């Protein structure tokens, strides 16, 4: 989980102890391409920089949080060595966490955004200007701290007014992918105890936490917070996508986990987010080895049961390709289940040994499971996860590829420049 960056700084200004409602991020007038106003802080960072602020928290995070493990899963484990950024399948400057109250938060795992820095005053919330004297100011503690390129802070032109202004390096774009979330109230995942407040993520302004390495591409990290301009884009083509409702791909796994989907291996011996050449026709597949006791791989779209999203709303079936990772031609016997991720509600699951593949290709078998077979005790519009688990109490090692929702699934879609400009909502992609 991300940590507490800027918690101290903004607590006095913003936090009422509960997430406030948030309006759509406003479109920027006179701009084409759907650019919207937002704000960003950062999390994570190199110890070299963070150790300038020991009074914020203990090393190695110094209260800035950790970008290595995000709440969307994604970090591939390597049990040979410790987990480093080599285990994260995206460049560390591209990691981002959306505030849970952002209007397009549902299904945001794996969604990509184009972000650029906006020069000038930083807003504390929708109407107030960020006050430099209230809370923890990074420049007050280490004004000479350099970024990873040896650059010094450009200063705050409105410091005398106690207002924080940011001087961007430039207006170049940074492309980020959501791998984490930024909750207003931070709790311990095991005990549920409140461990802190991420007040910038509490509402009023569209907020995104960038990794330290992404933030420093846009402005000096000593700023700590900046106004941004952003828009959702296709991860593949960088073409703008519809903003609200945000895009969820009806393909859950293509050559990678597609937009909208978290990837959660559990109790695994090994896992691969994307294993080149292991997929159907030599593409990427996602693979896992599960010990005899239990374990599985879950794909989930967080908060996506709400109206406008509902990736299974019109679904007729779930389709996927399955093979033994070790090369045996025997189709692994695993269970496939569906459910609602946020409410922890589950449908029935089925064993692949009870199903007939719709086709075979090499050692791969394709299955197509009608949604009705899951016999969900709730409407299919509330399904937000699919899971693949160890069925037989034996060691099992398998790869999955081209996991798709058949029928109309996913939400949002690609937009033309003109419709982005006016903010028109597009029909849900079929
Ligand atoms: C913004 O914060 C100020 C206090 O700093 C508060 O008076 C004001 O109501 C807040 N505005 C909104 C829209 O919440
Ligand atoms: C794990 O780390 C070891 C040592 O660096 C490396 O040889 C191995 O390929 C890694 N395994 C995976 C799955 O990345
Ligand atoms: C900033 O906060 C200080 C301390 O609360 C206050 O005296 C000052 O008026 C504030 N300045 C602005 C510009 O809001
Ligand atoms: C920062 O650098 C300036 C000039 O290089 C120096 O005068 C000042 O003492 C330094 N401040 C701190 C806190 O190190
Ligand atoms: C903008 O700043 C970034 C980060 O310093 C730099 O990598 C990039 O080359 C700059 N872009 C332009 C167009 O100057
Ligand atoms: C959705 O997934 C498909 C299949 O992997 C991929 O080709 C397509 O680019 C994705 N769409 C977007 C907008 O990411
Ligand atoms: C396939 O996986 C590799 C990493 O193993 C990754 O670099 C590549 O981008 C993936 N291909 C696609 C099309 O996503
Ligand atoms: C697959 O191969 C690995 C490494 O060769 C081995 O450790 C594992 O036991 C095998 N798994 C199965 C299910 O055969």
TrEMBL record:
SUPFAM superfamilies: Barwin-like endoglucanases, Galactose-binding domain-like. The keyword Membrane does not apply. CDD domains: DPBB_EXP_N-like (cd22271). Residues 409-430 are annotated as: Disordered. InterPro entries: Expansin (IPR002963), Expansin/allergen_DPBB_dom (IPR007112), Galactose-bd-like_sf (IPR008979), RlpA-like_sf (IPR036908). Keywords: Signal. One of its GO terms (biological process) is plant-type cell wall organization. Residues 69-240 form the Expansin-like EG45 domain. The keyword Transit peptide does not apply. It comes from the Eukaryota. Residues 1-21 form the signal peptide. PANTHER family: EXPANSIN-A15 (PTHR31867). This is Expansin-like EG45 domain-containing protein.
